[in-house]
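Record type: monomer structure entry
Structure origin: computed from sequence
Chain ID: A
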Amino acid sequence: MKKTLIIFCLMLLFALKGKAQENTSLPAQYQEMMTKILSNVPKTASSTASQLLDFAKTMIGVPYRYATSNPEKGFDCSGFVNYVFSSFGFKVPRSSPEFASAGVPVKLADAKVGDVLIFTGTNPKVRRIGHVGIIYSIEDGEIKFIHSTSGKAHGVTVTDFDAYYKSRFMKAVSIVE
């Protein structure tokens, strides 16, 4: 269904390009339809972000290990994010708090696959940065992120951006532009 919508939009855009050259405008009913269709097309990742996430996926199951950024031994959260981005030539911080000044801040509503989510530590009432993860997917407004957690999964896993993580959310930053 999504592919059909995208193909339809592309065909309509090509048709519009021809109309624009003739200085005629698109009828209002079609403009409204285009707006609705385009608002439902999922946010997609850039090629680099897709490659970055494919690479990160290969590390699902690597155990959590405090203060480590070595896939053979394990990762803490920032070690994992640092390892993934560094593998693609990006200079990113090694500690979670330093991610607050890394990249370009983005509103959560504008965040895309490959952006970094920054959270408090495990206690959401203590508003101090203590955890990071990478947006893994955004479908129908639902975000999943990949991270190394000391929690139940105790390692690299993909997690829903649920109420618990929303209570801990501090900011999002874009590293890949």
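Annotation 1: The chain has two domains: 2-40, 47-174.
Annotation 2: Residues 2-21 form the longest helix (20 residues).
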